[in-house]
Amino acid sequence: MGKRPRRRSERASRSLWRKFVFLVVLLAAGGAFLFAELSERGGGFIRAGELLSAAHDVLHAPQRPSVSRGGATEGRERTSSLPVPLQSLPTAEGPSTGRALLFPGPPPEDADAPEVSAKAAVLLDAASGRVLYAKEPHARLPMASLTKIMTAIVALESSSDLDEVVTVSPNAEGVEGSSIYLRAGDKIPLRDLLYGLMLRSGNDAATAIAEHVGGSVEGFSFLMNEKAAWLGLSDTHFVNPHGLDAEGHYASAYDLAVLSRYAMENPTFREIVGTRVYRPRVTPSGHGNSEAVWTNKNKLLVTYEGADGIKTAYTDRAGRGLAASAVRDGRRLIAVVLNAPDDWNDVRKLFDYGFTHFPLTPIVHKGEVFTGVRGSYAALADLAYPLQSDEVSRIGRFVQEADFGPFRPNAFLKVYLGQEAIGSVPLAPLSGDAGRGVSPELRP
Fold first, then answer.
1. One of 119, 148, 366, 414 is an active-site residue; which one?
2. What is the pLDDT of residue 48?
3. Could you tell me the sign of the dihedral formed by the alpha carbons of 282, 285, 286, 287, in that order?
4. Where does 182-335 have alpha helices with state H?
5. Which residues are CB-contacts of 383 (< 8 A; sequence separation ≥ 6)?
6. Is 145 a catalytic residue?
7. Is CB count within 10 Å lower at the N or C end of the chain?
8. Catalytic pick from 145, 179, 325, 376?
9. Which residues on neighbouring strands pair with residue 124, listed in sequence order?
10. Is 148 a catalytic residue?
């Protein structure tokens, strides 16, 4: 009789041990699955943006092959078994809230892509992050004054007051190359230095900013590299704030496009690089008695419809370079060319190609009705994506249902271009089991 409690205890211990082993195996399997999903995306190396996109895909990916005979997938998440043709679904009106997510998607293949003089070039759709054109996108090349995009964004994000006064050092005065004619001892507002940096490409302004924000050129370069790592710029490294040729100072066209996309989301940065003419509040003493007037070197601002930034570049080693942004009908494209003898025409060709060959195509309409295993749903947001005409037929849309609780959307519409996820739209339940126990605020 006295041994029974021990046996029960042993059985309980074995049961707990089995549960623990099962949990470990489950976590290991999940980790292996996530690693496999991520590895397929990058061929071994994954950028930060791709990591987030891939992790989202793993968590919300439709289980297309695993559909039971009864029409429902096993487990708590259910997904419709076949892609829904773009033209086959009805639409429904209804007030709703929500936000669609866009992913970069696959690179296009197009025989009509333009020829450019650049050694490396990238055209990027800003909203989705999709690369519309690429030529040697990950080649590590000298970037010259495109460096100053990072200099400006680090300074803007590190400073709460752009009117704070910067005292110019002898080191800043003595830097070679393009200049806004600073002299040691000048006291210049940070705002003026940023305009001189981005409009006139002042290397002296870059050095003064770096010493003010980072304590030294080396300290500021550390901040630049920290920001590059945060953005996932794996083919970029900075050793100075101005871009003068130096060993270990390089970037890729793709990384600079990602950086430009990020920088153009900052309204102050956008205002600076979109300014055609600027009169500094304090004229650097190197101008003598004349008033300084700075004209933006980016001539696309006056020669290309919709152009609104961002930076020119040149050194003997880097050649000509240009990062540019243009907006038409509310849609922004980012173009970067490196070592480009015909940089202005290269960028014009890329913008024309992107706006013409990749129209923003509506894929999901807010209020549109979709049917899942549990019932019907309405889309809580619009979703549009840059597509070539022959890509529209490759779009697939899948209803994914999951138990998220009564106060969150319990379904998403996953949008695919071929096998690549390009977007996700939250859905609100309309009927069937899908609508039970859901907060009224989530209903369309």
1. 148
2. 35
3. positive
4. 190-199, 203-214, 217-231, 253-263, 267-273, 300-303
5. 100, 102, 362, 363, 364, 415, 423, 425
6. yes
7. N
8. 145
9. 131, 334
10. yes
- 311 labeled binding residue: yes
Token code pair at residue 84: 């829904």
Copy the structure tokens of residue 125: 């759709």
Taking 60 as the threshold, does the pLDDT of residue 132 lie above it?
yes
Identified catalytic residue from 53, 80, 179, 201: 201
Give the residue among 232, 215, 238, 279 at the shortest CA–CA distance from 145: 238
Mean pLDDT computed over 244-271: 98
User: Picking from 45-49, 229-233, 242-246, 380-384, which range would have the lowest pLDDT averaged per residue?
Assistant: 45-49
pLDDT above 70 coverage of the chain, percent? 72
182: left (phi over 0), alpha (psi -120 to 50) or beta: beta
User: Tokens for 389?
Assistant: 């005409």
- Residue 57 banded pLDDT, cuts 50, 70, 90: very low
pLDDT in tens, 105-129: 666 777 689 999 999 999 999 999 9
* Cα–Cα distance measured from residue 87 to residue 362, given in angstroms and rounded to the nearest whole number: 11
- Res 288: pLDDT: 83
